[in-house]
């Protein structure tokens, strides 16, 4: 989807564009909840989320939250 048609439309277009990492974030949260937040058990889904955020962090609200939480833990 191209969001560069007219200046005011780009904001609307961005709001209508689905978050590219949302489904990965949901999968990661499901795994963490199901496994009582043991990160080692959910390493696979967390790794997928991290790869998604590496690619899409500028467009994903999920990644902004994920990175903030990751920095708080460290």
Task: Name the quaternary structure.
Answer: single chain
Q: Which stretches are poorly predicted, pLDDT < 50 over at least 5 residues?
A: none
Overall shape: elongated
Structure annotation, total helices = 4
Strand percentage: under 5%
Q: Helical proportion?
A: 55-70%
- SSE order in H/E notation? HHHH
Tell me the distance between the termini.
Answer: 37 Å
Radius of gyration: 15 Å
Number of strands: 0
Report the structural category: mainly alpha
Mean pLDDT over the full residue set: 82
The biggest sheet amounts to: none
Feature tags:
single chain; mainly alpha; elongated; Cys_alpha_HP_mot_SF
Report on this model:
Its main location: mitochondrion. It is found in: Mitochondrion. Belongs to the CMC4 family. With 74 residues, the chain is mainly α. The chain is built from four helices and no strands.
